[in-house]
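for the recovery benchmark. tokens below, seq after
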């Protein structure tokens, strides 16, 4: 049993006569979740839950304690600060709110590389949240444990309401991280993704200090054992495109790139299930039918309890949390070698970007720092329809340091590895959102495979006039018209106007990041959009 050094956390455990035993397995947690109410079994035995008002993350309610360690390191333009005294009050009050409740404890690992590992303890009054995080992180014994992993504690008090005047929070909801002691308090939200992403945020702060590039990406291997990375925000296709029976999966969301290669931070998958089908995504669909899988905000048929993945009445951000072990093809040890291919995924809501483009190393860093995509409805609170957005490093809410830190590390990794880089648009063609159509998954998979298997290495390319990247003129099995988005628009002048507008948005966004040399890898437009 871990010896907690912080007195508040120690008291939260030692004084609780009704404290539940630690590290309970799926059958016990499922039974207790059902007994507590608010959860039900699907027809296939997965656990179905809802998260109330919060069906996505609440990034504006995230805080980092400003202290001697963080004050000169954290990107405060992107992160709200909380004082050490405010955090101590929050920790004490949140802990006190759990005094009369059973606590579920999970002792887990984050980081498949034993040299770069966290020992994560999650304390929660919710059995289904305990099951969720047990699915998402690494169970001890599944991989080699490091000799002295950094200790992390997450206190999850979903029903506790923070007091902005007392705790320094913005609202009654708060996600507060103390980077010096690796303690996290999550209060006022049932959305389980906050637990998962708090671990990632801690990793993103500490990893660069140990010469590890933290990445919001999925990763898999080809038959030769070569590693490919897939960067992208929620809804761009990371999980879907990296799940390929022919390519063992390292992980679907969070990774580190050390000098030796890539390792998964997690031990599970948190897949979007909106419009999920057995034909298009058989591996993910099968995982949603496993006992122990947690389905978030998925509507069930009231009679049969069969999930309806097309019903978005609760949210479009429906999710399945399951252990990576249920997938048919996974990489041994959740590690891979130095990547030879890097893919940036974007869901272009403007319908401007081509479905695939080859990037120079400089362009790769530019698009990494830009992190352009569309916010998909429901992924964040208050977003009701897709909106064009830029999120640095394809994960700004989880990146405590300035994007330039991560950008410089990626540039060095690309130089040393010689990895090829590609931009793939999984968004719209023939017009923007509401006018055009979403690029079909089969075409995206075909283009991705052509990039991964070397088929496009010698392909004839055209240079995009605005963005400067190289676009293949022909790919077997793909209509040539699709490769040139301008040709898919009924009104080409409208496309030109939209393309210039988007290029201008890129320029405007990049002003806060890079030098003139960095910006030179972006769109060639004289003036930013108004």
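predicted aa per position
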């Amino acid at each position: 049993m871990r010896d907690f050094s912080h007195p508040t956390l120690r008291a939260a455990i030692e004084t609780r006569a009704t404290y539940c035993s630690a590290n309970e397995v799926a059958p016990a947690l499922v039974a207790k979740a059902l007994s507590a109410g608010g959860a039900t079994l699907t027809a296939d035995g997965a656990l179905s839950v809802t998260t109330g008002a919060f069906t996505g993350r609440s990034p504006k309610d995230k805080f980092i304690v400003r202290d001697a360690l963080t004050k000169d390191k954290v990107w405060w333009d992107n992160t709200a600060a909380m004082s050490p005294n405010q955090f101590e009050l929050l920790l004490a009050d949140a802990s006190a709110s759990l005094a009369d409740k059973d606590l579920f404890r999970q002792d887990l690992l984050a980081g498949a590389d034993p040299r770069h590992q966290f020992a994560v303890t999650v304390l929660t009054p919710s059995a289904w949240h305990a099951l969720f995080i047990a699915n998402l992180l690494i169970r001890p014994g599944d991989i080699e444990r490091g000799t002295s992993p950094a200790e992390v504690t997450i206190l999850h008090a979903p029903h506790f309401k923070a007091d902005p005047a007392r705790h320094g929070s913005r609202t009654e909801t708060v996600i507060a991280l103390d980077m010096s002691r690796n303690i996290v308090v999550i209060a006022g939200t049932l959305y389980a993704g906050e637990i998962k992403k708090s671990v990632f945020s801690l990793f993103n702060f500490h990893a660069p200090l140990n010469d590890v590039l933290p990445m919001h990406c999925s990763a898999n291997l080809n038959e030769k054992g070569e590693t490919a990375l897939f960067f992208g925000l929620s809804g761009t296709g990371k999980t879907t495109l990296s799940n390929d029976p022919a390519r063992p999966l390292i992980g679907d969301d969070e990774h580190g790139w050390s000098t030796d290669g890539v390792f998964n931070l997690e031990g599970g998958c948190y897949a979007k299930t909106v419009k999920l089908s057995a034909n298009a995504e058989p591996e993910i669909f099968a995982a949603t039918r496993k006992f122990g899988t947690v389905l978030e905000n998925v509507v069930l048929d009231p009679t049969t309890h069969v999930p309806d993945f097309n019903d978005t009445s609760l949210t479009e951000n429906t999710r399945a949390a399951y252990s990576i072990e249920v997938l048919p093809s996974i990489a041994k040890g959740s590690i891979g070698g130095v990547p030879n291919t890097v893919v940036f995924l974007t869901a272009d809501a403007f319908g401007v970007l081509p479905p695939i483009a080859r990037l120079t190393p400089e362009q790769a860093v530019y698009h990494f720092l830009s992190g352009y995509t569309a916010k998909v409805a429901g992924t964040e609170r208050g977003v009701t329809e897709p909106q064009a957005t830029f999120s640095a490093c394809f994960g700004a809410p989880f990146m405590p340091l300035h994007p330039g830190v991560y950008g410089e590390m990626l540039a060095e990794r690309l130089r040393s590895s010689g990895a090829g880089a590609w931009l793939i648009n999984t968004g719209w063609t023939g017009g923007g959102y509401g006018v055009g159509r979403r690029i079909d998954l089969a075409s995206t998979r075909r283009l991705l495979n052509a990039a991964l298997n070397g088929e496009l290495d010698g392909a004839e390319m055209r240079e995009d006039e605005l963005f400067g990247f190289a676009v293949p003129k022909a790919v077997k099995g793909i209509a040539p018209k699709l490769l040139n988005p301008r040709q898919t628009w009924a009104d080409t002048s409208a496309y030109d106007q939209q393309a210039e507008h988007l290029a201008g948005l890129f320029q405007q966004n990049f002003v806060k990041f890079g030098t003139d040399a960095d910006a030179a890898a972006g769109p060639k437009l004289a003036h930013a959009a108004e």
